[in-house]
Amino acid sequence: MRVLVYGAGSVGLGLASCLLKASIKVCLVARANTVRALREVGLTRTGIFGFFHAQPGTFVSYELLVEIQDRPFDFILVCTKSYDSAVSAQDISKHKKLFGKNTKIILCQNGWGNAEIFVRYFEKSRICNARIITGFTRRKPNEVEITVHADAIHIGSLFGGVSSPVQPLCQAIAQGDIPCETTESIEKDLWAKMLYNCALNPLGAILDVPYGKLAKNKYSNTLMDAIIEEVFIVMSAAGYKTHWQSAAGFLKVFYDKLVPDTALHKSSTLQDILAGKKTEIEALTGAVIRLAEKHKINVPHNQAVYSIIKFIESLHP
Question: What is d(CA 49, CA 18) in angstroms, rounded to the nearest whole number?
Answer without folding.
Answer: 10
